[in-house]
Design brief:
By secondary structure, this protein is mostly helical. It has one domain: Tetracycline Repressor, domain 2. The chain is about 75% helix and about 0% strand. α1 crosses α2, α6 crosses α10 and α8 runs antiparallel to α9. The longest helix is centred in the middle third of the chain and has 29 residues. The termini are far apart.
């Protein structure tokens, strides 16, 4: 009996195979023909679902954003007894220390190494997904008294822009000492605008995550030569 075609499984297979290739070779060095060869499908079967390699990348990133967002909501459900300020600190710390989230973040950066425009595009996508969640918690904090900012939406967007872009050495180059100063400035800024959520522990966890990421990128760069 001929196996029934399952479009959902086909898309999942294309995305998982493409993600593995992007990680192994980097996005720029992976061609659609590479994806075709790895899948053992015809080009027509792949182009039926995706018009280009960029479309494949967008779908891969969208799935990763979905998984991260789902984990964030699960963490919030576990922290429902905390104040909004405490919830935000918990989210930041979990995002930096949760194994699955850290691996995905590292994979994204490694995949995009050498493509700053793509890193920026992905960060913009992440901002669109994460900022509304953070802004909602800030509004909750205004109600429970743990947050005093008058600009929850803008505060969420500025924090994520500075934390994910300005403090990212793959977008804004800088020594680790400079990154630490940026994080300390961000801590002070958030405190002054009424959202004191960046703890010293979060700064230390961020620095450790950056150091580990640098090691992963260096390892990948050596292997890909």
């Amino acid at each position: 009996m001929t196996k029934k075609y399952n479009p959902k499984q086909t898309v999942e297979k294309i995305l998982s195979t493409s993600a593995a290739l992007f990680m192994e070779k980097g996005y720029d060095k992976t061609s659609m023909q590479d994806i075709v060869n790895a899948l053992g499908m015809s080009k027509g079967a792949i182009f039926h679902h995706f018009k280009s390699k960029e479309d494949v990348l967008n779908a891969v990133m969208e799935e990763q954003f979905r998984q991260v967002t789902e984990r964030m909501r699960n963490w919030l459900a576990e922290a429902k007894e905390l104040t909004a300020k405490e919830k935000l600190s918990v989210l930041l710390m979990r995002n930096l220390t949760d194994d699955a989230t850290v691996i995905e973040a590292n994979n994204i950066v490694v995949t995009m190494t050498g493509s700053p425009q793509l890193i920026l595009a992905i960060m913009q996508g992440n901002l669109k997904k994460s900022a509304p969640i953070m802004a909602d918690i800030l509004r909750e904090g205004i109600e429970d008294g743990s947050i005093t900012t008058a600009f929850p939406d803008e505060c969420a967007e500025v924090f994520l822009l500075l934390f994910n872009i300005w403090c990212d050495t793959y977008v804004f180059e800088g020594e680790l000492s400079a990154v630490r100063k940026r994080l300390e400035f961000l801590q002070t800024l958030m405190r002054q605008v009424g959202a004191d959520i960046v703890t010293d522990e979060i700064i230390e966890a961020t620095m450790k995550a950056i150091e580990n990421l640098n090691l992963e990128v260096a390892k990948w760069t050596t292997q890909s030569k």
